[in-house]
Amino acid sequence: MIIYGASDIGRVRSSNQDSFITGKMSDSVGFAVVCDGMGGANGGNIASEIATNVISEHIKSAYRDNMGSNSIRYLLMSAVIAANAEIYDRAQEDETLLGMGTTVVAVVVVDNSAHIVHVGDSRAYIVSPNNIEQITHDHSVVQSMLDNGEITEQEARQHPNRNVITRALGVRDKVDVDYDEISLSDDDILLICTDGLTNFVEDKKIAKIIKKNKISEYPNVLIDTANNNGGGDNITVVTLSVKE
Predict the structure, then answer these.
(1) Residue 220 half-sphere exposure, CB side, CA atoms within 13 Å?
(2) Which pTM does this prediction carry?
(3) Domain housing 78
(4) Nearest-angstrom CA–CA distance, 36 and 48
(5) How many CB atoms lie within 10 A of CB 211?
(6) Cβ–Cβ under 8 Å, residues 35 and 48
(7) Count of domains forming the chain
(8) Contacts of residue 34, Cβ cutoff 8 Å, sequence gap at least 6
(9) What is the pLDDT of residues 89-116, one digit of tens each?
(10) Per-state percent for the chain, helix, strand, coil, to nearest 5
């Protein structure tokens, strides 16, 4: 299991409210958690840090060898629900943090199977030698408009509400979590990222960068590209692959 990750403040923001954690349970089992916080100068930082810490600790303590797909799904769902509760409770205790929240994409990769949970508009992609496919489905106002045929893909990229999400961890006492399980080929790259990448680098360009660079360089080259295109948000990128 090969994992690389990086995060950057970007060119506009005064702080980095993204957070990520990666780890391995064995040579063939790894995980990653990527979050994009929201809710004021301090709130977003706190929400994303709580989420990455709670979810990663839950994964590390609960994962066992030879777990089946349903057990891994339950593990990930439980981890995200626990993070939601902790963020929500923290905000109720401190009125300066009310309304804070975070997106999340969390993955556990076992051999050639990727188990993915997400809330919000941070994304997971599969990048193969000749294709890029978005696995997650954004929980956002703009995605809903796209789904309803109200706007085009190009209009979505420039829409003034493109950063408005319809689900987040910690905003309410309960949260709906989406789960996907996919198979990875040996030459596939699983990429998870915040919208600081996808709002400033088109999918086709992401695929080209991955095709042309070394695996160890993916996160930093993608971040540099987003910054060169304006860097209007924090940028976090993690890539996982089953082989070097």
Answers:
(1) 6
(2) 0.94
(3) 2-138+168-241
(4) 6
(5) 13
(6) yes
(7) 1
(8) 5, 18, 19, 20, 52, 104, 105, 106, 122, 192, 193, 194, 236, 238
(9) 999 999 899 889 999 999 999 999 999 9
(10) 40, 30, 30
- What are the structure tokens assigned to 88, written together? 């929500």
Residues 1 and 30: beta-carbon distance below 8 Å:
yes
The reply to whether 56 falls in a domain is: yes
Tokens of 244: 């070097």
**What CATH number did the domain enclosing 90 receive?**
3.60.40.10
Residues in the chain: 244
Digit-coded pLDDT (tens) for 139-164: 988 888 887 888 877 777 777 777 78
Q: Residue 76 and residue 58: Cα distance in Å, rounded?
A: 8
Give the CA distances from residue 19 to residues 113, 138, 142, 203, 226, in Å, rounded to whole numbers and listed in that order.
Answer: 24, 19, 24, 22, 17
What's the pLDDT tens digit per position in 168-177? 999 999 999 9
- Facing residues of 34 across strands? 20, 105
Residue 119 within any structural domain of the chain:
yes
* Domain assignment of residue 155, yes or no: no
Joined tokens for residue 214: 């070394």
Phi, then psi, of 18 in degrees rounded to 5: -80, 155
**Token code pair at residue 206:** 């992401």
Q: Cβ contacts of residue 22 below 8 Å, gap of 6+? A: 3, 5, 30, 31, 32, 33, 238, 240
In a domain, 160, yes or no: no
Give the whole-angstrom CA distance, residue 219 versus residue 193: 9
Distance in angstroms (rounded) separating the CA atoms of residues 128 and 187: 6
